[in-house]
Design brief:
Blueprint (H helix, E strand, L loop, with lengths): L17 H12 L11 H14 L1 H16 L4 H17 L3 H17 L3 H17 L3 H14 L6 H17 L3 H17 L8 H14 L3 H12 L7 H17 L3 H17 L3 H17 L3 H18 L2 H17 L3 H18 L2 H17 L3 H64 L1 H42 L9 H11 L9 E10 L2 H8 L1 H18 L5 E6 L2 E10 L3 H13 L3 E2 L5 E2 L3 E8 L11 H17 L5 E8 L8 E7 L6
Parallel strand pairs: 6-7
Antiparallel strand pairs: 1-3, 1-6, 2-3, 4-5, 7-8
Helix pairs in contact: 1-2, 2-3, 2-4, 3-4, 4-5, 5-6, 6-7, 6-8, 7-8, 8-9, 8-10, 9-10, 10-11, 10-12, 11-12, 12-13, 12-14, 13-14, 14-15, 14-16, 15-16, 16-17, 17-18, 18-19, 22-23, 23-24
Length: about 675
């Protein structure tokens, strides 16, 4: 059975108002390094919010201890921010019940102040609770009500939170094609409003990765997870734990439960070390699921039982139900069928009572397979028939929903037509009134009209400038992405081929100042992925790309050729400097170990093959850049055969009398020599 971490709550973070930004500057300057006094509660709240990103347990302790004195007699803004921050650290600590109580306090306080924004945000938090309790249909209906009620609310935090909840809700009912646009719109809002505390880009990409996992597309899920890690030197503990957890789930879908267990162990270590109770329950339940895939029923039973305590403590029904179901299947696999069925049937009854039909259908399928493997064919057949009836009911429900949506669309168009007719009639009446007034006050209205037109033209001009600027930014971003590798930021093959097309008409006058192509491959890279995981492999690729950029000249071109292969294109390199260039590249790669996120130091080396154009032994001048790279590749392969961590520079071609290439004349370049 599979489940996932609860989505980040839209009301789990503070607003970033102007004064808070000012206080951030004070924090950076050290003005708030000393203990804060009661007269500075807003600064103190910001300081605790920053602490929560590093040590959630300590932040929670401070809020509980200092909270009553901090908000006693404080303005509304301080009290509401305190409650929202307290709710966030309670959720991160796995104290879900306490977070639900705080939701009600926020709602009561915001209602007294007629604060539409915080009422809307806490409404989204309550919908998130429905999703956590496996009630996605109810959550979608509630989302529609919130959307209609607050359609005029144009705050980026609310709009981003609404899009995120829609994406999560549609993903929960399996409508991934409808979920994806909401996630992308949420990412766009977050990208344009980088000061938002919640949701952040990492939260949205984690939810997007979960959707891809549930859609059985682990490659895209892992790509979304790499985007969370890209460019980040460190991540908040809750984000790092979720990142490892979803990586494990994606690897399970990839049928690599062994690697998944390693990722789950990383997530479990972070969760236990930082008091993330709900995350701990979720990870343990998924460890049980991975062990079930490996048919390791004993470890699966132990992990499922271990998940029950933190699931109960955090009131995480998803994790508890998954743990109980996996415990049942683990017992079933050990021949304790009656005991196992009691757990499985208990979870099935809960799904029936709560109306979680999609989850019920999945669990019935797993139960029927377990019964069939155990030889209980009659019970398996009864379970299959129940599931078939449920699938038919779900299909009928989807058809009814589609018909209802079409009817609503028709009604909406009719209402829009009526409104348009009334608008035209009102426009006609307004025109008549304006005409009579114009005849009476021609001079005054003429002057006013000129001013009005000028204002409209000015506004339209400003809007056009903003639109053009935004289009230019989007086009620049698209051009950059099409020409660069998304992981390392280096140039890709497409940009290199364009560079080579522009090179076609160039003529190099002297052989002692030629273009040098250096093709290199990271040694034993597969071993890095196998022993340390694909995340470590990505870290190595990013670091090697950074070292190559720092080593070569600004005019040189560094690109990721594919996988663990890189290509360095250097123009106008003197004959005597070509070995020096290649040696400097290899030294830069192997000079210092690559540090992983967990502190592991990996000694990395590379093997290279290099060739120059125009080629000294190409008398006819027929050798082009593609053939040159092919020769560099053959030299690289020779270096691999000779033991790796070295480079060969193609010095010439051996030809028989017939003129057919017999092989290469190679100069060996060893790393470590002074450049």
């Amino acid at each position: 059975m599979r489940t996932s971490l609860s989505s980040p709550s839209p009301t789990s973070c503070l607003h970033r108002r102007g004064p808070v930004r000012l206080l951030a500057a004070l924090l950076m300057s050290g003005a708030l390094a000393a203990p804060l006094h009661a007269a500075e509660p807003e600064a103190r709240l910001y300081e605790i919010a920053q602490l929560a990103e590093r040590d959630n347990a300590m932040a929670r302790t401070i809020l509980v201890r200092e909270g009553p004195a901090m908000i006693a007699g404080a303005p509304y803004a301080i009290r509401i921010d305190f409650l929202r921050l307290l709710r966030r650290v309670q959720v991160d600590a796995g104290h879900v019940r306490e977070a639900y109580d705080i939701d009600q306090q926020i709602l009561d306080l915001a209602t007294l102040e007629n604060d539409a924004l915080n009422i809307a945000l806490v409404s989204l938090a309550q919908i998130n609770r429905q999703l956590a309790e496996n009630a996605p249909d109810s959550a979608l209906a509630a989302l529609e009500l919130v959307k209609q009620r607050y359609h005029q609310l144009d705050h980026p935090e609310y709009r981003a939170g609404l899009e995120l909840m829609y994406g999560v809700a549609y993903g929960a009912v399996g409508q991934y094609d409808r979920a994806l646009p909401h996630f992308l719109r949420c990412l766009d809002i977050v990208g344009r409003h980088t000061g938002l505390w919640n949701p952040r880009a990492a939260d949205v990409r984690l939810a997007l990765a979960r959707m891809y996992i549930n859609a059985r597309d682990p490659d895209k899920a892992l790509e979304a997870l790499r985007a969370v890690r890209a460019g980040q030197t460190s991540l908040p503990v809750r984000t790092a734990a979720a990142l490892a957890f979803y990586e494990g789930r994606a690897l399970v879908v990839q049928d690599d439960p062994g690697a998944a267990l390693l990722a789950f162990e990383r997530a479990l270590t972070l969760a236990r070390a930082n008091g993330l109770t709900s995350v701990e329950a979720n990870v343990l339940a998924n460890i049980a699921n991975a062990n079930l895939k490996l048919q390791r029923y004993g470890p699966a039973e132990r992990a499922a039982r271990a998940a029950l305590a933190p699931a109960h403590a955090s009131n995480d029904q998803n994790s508890r139900q998954m743990a109980e179901a996996n415990l049942g299947f683990a017992l079933f696999g050990q021949g304790r069928q009656r005991e196992g069925l009691s757990y499985i049937d208990s979870v099935l009854d809960h799904f029936r009572d709560s109306g979680a039909k999609a989850a019920l259908s999945r669990l019935l399928a797993e139960k029927s397979q377990a019964l069939e493997r155990a030889g209980s064919y009659r019970a398996a057949l009864a379970t299959v028939r129940e599931r078939e009836a449920l699938v038919s009911e779900l299909a009928q429900g989807e058809r009814e929903k589609a018909i209802s949506a079409l009817q609503e669309e028709v009604k909406a168009k009719e209402r829009a037509a009526q409104i348009d007719l009334l608008r035209r009639q009102n426009a006609d009446k307004d025109a008549e009134i304006q005409d009579r007034s114009a005849r009476q006050l021609v001079a005054s209205l003429g002057a006013l009209l000129i001013l009005l037109v000028c204002a409209i033209v000015w506004l339209m001009y400003r809007k056009s400038l903003r639109t053009s600027r935004r289009l230019g930014e989007l086009n620049a971003e698209l051009a950059y992405r099409s020409a660069h590798d998304p992981l390392t930021g280096l140039s890709n093959r497409r940009s290199f081929q364009e560079r080579m097309r522009s090179r076609t008409g160039e003529t190099v006058a002297r052989l002692d100042s030629a273009d040098c192509f250096t093709l290199l491959d990271i040694d034993h890279f597969k071993r890095v992925n196998d022993e340390y995981g694909h995340a470590a492999g990505d870290t190595v690729l990013i670091e090697i790309g950074r070292r190559l950029r720092q080593t070569v000249r600004g005019s040189d071109m560094v690109l990721r050729w594919g996988g663990e292969e890189f290509l360095v294109y250097s123009q106008n390199v003197a004959l005597s400097q070509r070995p020096v260039l290649v040696r400097r590249i290899l030294d830069a790669i192997s000079a210092t170990p690559v540090l992983l996120d967990d502190g592991t130091a990996l000694q990395i080396s590379a093997t290279a093959g290099a060739v120059s154009l125009p080629f000294e032994h190409d008398a006819d001048g027929n050798l082009d850049w593609e053939q040159a790279i092919a020769l560099a590749d053959r030299a690289l392969y020779k270096g691999k055969e000779a033991g790796r961590n070295r480079a060969y520079l193609v010095a010439g071609l051996r030809r028989p009398d017939g003129g057919v290439h017999e092989g290469l004349q190679l100069d060996l370049i060893l790393p470590g020599a002074a450049a």
